[in-house]
Amino acid sequence: MLPILIGIIVSIAILTVPLMLVAKFIGAQRTDFKTCLLAVTAQVVAEAILHAFLGDNAILIGFIIFVGIYKYMLETTWLKSMFINIISNMLLWAIMLLGLASFMYHTAP
Q: Transmembrane segments in this chain: where (predicted)?
């Protein structure tokens, strides 16, 4: 349980500022730190819950949910929120793969 919580906290900490910069770049209405932090927290926690219950089948459902989260929290269009979601998911997968690589490196015989 503790590694999952640490992963969620680290993911939120790493994703917030890049999401804020991408949202400002594409012209979202609300790009303050607090709103971006809430949007990233909603995405990461929802992704953890979806993957816990649905496994890898949660990817498409999660994509639709996260586009909606970004659309309404950052007050932007569907297309812009889809772009934000794609960038955010790429960063999130990079974090997960780096964590997996680090775990494998430190536990290898």
A: 6-27, 48-70, 82-105
